[in-house]
Amino acid sequence: MAHYRASESKREQFRRYLEKAGVLDSLTNVLVALYEETEKPNNAMDFIKQHLGSGDDSTDIESLRVELSKLQHKYDQLLEENRELKNKLLQYEPATEHRGAE
After folding, report:
1. Which H/E stretch holds residue 38?
2. Coiled-coil region(s) at which residues (predicted)?
3. Could you give the angle at which helices 23-36 and 2-21 cross, rounded to 10 degrees?
4. Residue 76 and residue 78: Cα distance in Å, rounded?
């Protein structure tokens, strides 16, 4: 019986440790969010991983999304500029190529 009490005491210490560190609250919040999802995700583990991140990670993710959006916009602009320059170049190339073929 002494062994049972010792292991129970260790369990209780570990539970208090998790509670003090905020792990239990975080896990509870994520599991509640998963429970309240109207359409359950195909992979519950991915949902938990995604929603269990710390506040710093979510801030980093948001800043990366903003940066991605800006870079995507810049990329689209450069593609359009490239298209326009190619079209301008094609106006002059056929005449040059045609002369070289003669």
Report:
1. none
2. 61-88
3. 70
4. 5
